[in-house]
Write a structure and sequence with these properties.
By secondary structure, the protein is of the alpha/beta class. The protein contains 18 helices and 25 strands. It has 2 domains: 3-278, 3-Layer(aba) Sandwich (Rossmann fold); 285-541, Rossmann fold (3-Layer(aba) Sandwich). Strands 13-12-14-15-25-24-23-20-21 form a 9-stranded mixed beta sheet, sandwiched between helices. A 7-stranded parallel beta sheet has the order 5-2-6-1-7-10-11, with helices on both faces. Strands 16-17-22 form a 3-stranded mixed beta sheet, covered by helices on one side.
């Protein structure tokens, strides 16, 4: 049985529980332990895939096709451990499963209640589908005191009793606000947060106190006394220069040491050379590049969280700082659109998205990149719009478009009606439900000989994660390749276009999948490394 660390948050949301969980996972790995991270989300949506990115941020997709919370992206980026479907669950899914079992008669006519039926279902989720992990870090979404998270809190309380203190640890992330008028940090919000946690029967073992200012020892002592936590277990969590500083910052404050002390494990020094190297490179760049990201969800940058981090990773691999200019694609729509936001860019990125809104602006941006020899990288919808742009402006198909936007005569992009997932054939139509019906998860792709992507990957066969309902129509391949847009990556059966590129361009690549989901700071994705290299070379020419 692995050791479980349950991570809760109090006072306010957005304290960084997900980042704290990921950083702790990295620190435990540096000590030689095998870790897995999980997230319990309190909302009633059955899966995050149906939620608006402007409300919830990006949907992170796993190899096995789960649509999950964006925090699982943090987990993967910091630990390199691929998340699974069994690593993220919502209250909606828990209740759906319980009610389905009730309808099947699994409960033999018993009255269905939160305790024990819902809490037992949550326990099963937390403790199942594990291998030989030494630690399982379980983040509870939401804020202590919210009614939505009560079933999760009750569950981990029960697990704490059932597994015992040698197998469980409760880590509470809280806030020490700095009141500028008074010129001091205030502990009362933390005290109240711990009191809320204690009111549901959970005594935290460690407090991770977020703050913008150094926490004096006397305040730590005060928190310790009022919250019934050892003074050494009151850990400062100061704001960091970069998220990749966080493992080193938390180690200096003793977080991993306290975890080891709680479980009576050796207190040897971890090997943090990987993170030290990352931080060193981030602090000592040899230049910078400016990337214009032309999207439609730019009002909430968490919509593109993995994308932004993958671009940073590409910068790390090329020893440059990546400056991102987030541009709403609708800016470029209309006859007299102002393209000045692109003229100062060293490269143009067009990310994924759904729906017609902003699509014409994305097409304009892609045309600008092609005509001005600016490095271009399109992902998912961005790749589809690159194909539409080529069909319209080079192949003479002025009405070329996507069937996602309605009935059209020349759908160079159309609804996928079937594809192979494992050994099964998946089918859908325009009337299918939206949630969980996309081409989701990892699929194989074969790269063409002599192509740029083959050079970047260094192999013929790759596997990348997908999340889409529409696909470029392969029947237009010959026409478009005559105009210089090469279909350089295809599904193994040759039916599904996965990558397009222009050999006559410094860097012009569009991919149907989401490579940002597999990029790590210690292992940057080759497509992002190649894109940033092209942007770096461009910046040094002008």
């Amino acid at each position: 049985m692995p050791r479980f660390v349950f991570i809760t948050g109090g006072v306010v949301s957005s304290l960084g529980k997900g980042l704290a969980s990921a950083a702790l996972g990295a620190l435990l790995q540096a000590r030689g332990y095998k870790v897995r991270l999980r997230k319990l989300d309190p909302y009633l949506n059955v899966d995050p895939g149906t939620m608006s990115p402007t409300q919830h941020g990006e949907v992170f997709v796993t190899d096995d096709g789960a649509e999950t919370d964006l925090d699982l992206g943090h987990y993967e980026r910091f630990t390199g451990v691929d998340a699974k479907q069994s690593d993220n669950v919502t209250t909606g899914r828990i209740y759906s499963d319980v009610l389905a079992r009730e309808r099947r008669g699994d409960y033999l006519g018993a009255t269905i209640q939160v305790i024990p039926h819902v809490t037992d279902a949550i326990k099963t989720f937390v403790t199942s589908n594990l291998d030989d992990e030494d630690f399982v870090l379980v983040e509870i979404g939401g804020t202590v005191g919210d009614i939505e998270s009560l079933p999760f809190l009750e569950t981990i309380r029960q697990l704490g009793n059932e597994l015992g203190p040698r197998k469980t640890c409760f880590l509470h992330v809280t806030l020490l606000p700095y009141i500028h008028v008074a010129g001091e940090l205030k502990t009362k919000p933390t005290q109240h947060s711990v009191k809320e946690l204690q009111s549901v029967g959970i005594q935290p073992d460690i407090l991770l106190c977020r703050s913008s200012e150094d926490i004096p020892n006397d305040l730590k002592r005060k928190i310790s006394r009022f919250c019934n936590v050892r003074e050494e277990a009151v850990i400062s969590a100061l704001d960091a220069n970069s998220i990749y500083d966080v493992p080193l910052v938390y180690h200096r404050e003793g977080l991993d040491m306290e975890i080891c002390r709680h479980f009576d494990l050796p207190l040897n020094e971890p090997d943090l050379s990987v993170w030290q190297n990352i931080v060193h490179r981030m602090g000592n760049p040899e230049g910078e590049v400016n990337i214009a990201v032309v999207g439609k969800y730019t009002s909430l940058l968490d919509s593109y969280k993995s994308l932004a981090e993958a671009l940073v990773h590409g910068g790390l691999d090329n020893n440059v700082t990546v400056r991102l200019n987030w541009v709403d694609s609708e800016t470029f729509e209309g006859d007299n659109a102002d393209m000045s936001a692109l003229k100062q860019a060293d490269g143009i990125m067009v990310p994924g998205g759904f729906g017609k809104r902003g699509s014409e602006g994305k097409i304009k941006a892609i045309q600008f990149a092609r005509e001005n020899q600016l490095p271009f990288f399109g992902i998912c919808f961005g790749m589809q719009m690159a194909v539409v742009e080529a069909a319209r402006n080079l192949a003479g198909m002025s009405d070329a478009s996507s069937s996602e936007f309605g009935q059209i005569d020349n759908p160079v992009v159309g609804l996928m009606t079937e594809w192979t997932s494992g050994n099964a054939q998946v089918t859908r139509d325009a009337e299918s439900d939206l949630g969980g019906t996309m081409r989701l998860g990892a699929y194989d792709c074969v790269l063409g000989e002599g192509t740029r992507v083959r050079d970047l990957y260094g192999v013929k066969n790759i596997s990348e994660r997908h999340r889409h309902r529409y696909e470029v129509n392969v029947s237009w391949r010959n026409i478009l390749e005559e105009k210089g847009l090469i279909f350089s990556g295809l599904s193994p059966d040759g039916e599904l276009p996965e990558i397009v590129e222009r050999p006559d361009h410094p860097f012009f690549i569009g991919v149907q999948f989401h490579p940002e989901l597999k990029s790590r700071p210690f292992q940057p994705h080759p497509l992002f490394s190649g894109f940033i290299k092209a942007a770096r070379d461009r910046s040094r020419l002008v």
